[in-house]
Design goal:
108 residues; mainly alpha; 55% helix; DNA-directed RNA polymerase activity; DNA-directed RNA polymerase; RPB6/omega-like_sf; DNA-directed RNA polymerase subunit omega; transcription
């Protein structure tokens, strides 16, 4: 994820619901857009984490041998400290950084 997440809080923030439905005029539609974007972000983050951790995968699958790799632990801690995908998606939505469309509204 190459996005700038410095503006995204790491913990839950109380939001005014009237802010969420301004761009769609429908709170539920806004929540669907946010949830779909959060899923996209989560998939991207998971793929990125798996790529970084695959470098440490060993060819031997022996339960007796457990290696503690400091670099692997630091990567995991970094991803744990990052803002959750839902918080990033809400922030993007509120700052008009998400493109969405509703085909049923376009037909009317």
């Amino acid at each position: 994820m190459n996005q700038n997440k410095n503006t995204v809080p790491n913990s839950t923030v109380t939001r005014d619901l009237r802010e969420l439905d301004q761009s769609t005029d429908n709170l539920y539609e806004s929540i669907v857009v946010i949830s779909k974007r959060a899923n996209q972000i989560a998939v991207d983050m998971k793929e990125e984490l798996n790529q970084k951790l695959s470098e440490f995968a060993s060819s031997n699958d022996n339960l007796e041998e457990v290696f503690e790799n400091r670099e692997q632990i630091e990567i995991s801690k970094h991803y744990e400290r990052m803002p959750k995908p839902t918080l990033v998606a809400v922030d993007e939505f509120l700052h008009d950084k998400v493109y969405f469309r509703n085909p049923s509204k376009e037909q009317e």
